[in-house]
Design a protein that fits this description.
This protein is mainly beta. The chain contains no helices and 10 strands. A hairpin with a 4-residue loop joins strand 6 and strand 7. The chain is globular and about 45 Å long.
Amino acid sequence: QVQLVESGGGSVQTGGSLRLSCVGSGYTYKRKCVAWFRQAPGKERERVAPILTGGSVSAYYADSMKGRVTISQDNAKNTVYLEMNSLKPEDTAMYYCASDPGRLYYLRDDCPGPFSYWGQGTPVTVSS
């Protein structure tokens, strides 16, 4: 059973930075799509960035965070990171990582989903 555990959230002031971590376990395959999502109170869930582990660096960042966020991976640690800089109050949300089950081959690297597995989330609060 795949499990995802996020960490690294917290409270920062406008302009601050945070690095979120998502540790995955229980996979059968090394390659999988992992994505970071966020959801603010009263708003729809938004996909921030996906990454195909073992693949190239993701270029599919949400417009709302483009230029301020970087997704990366450490395959040896089964961890996907989300580095966020120049944070704004509108970035305040619960951040989740999600994953598909993984497979041997992927025809595309933009990870459209679906995502079967979700972590419990880590909260990010940005104060002005």
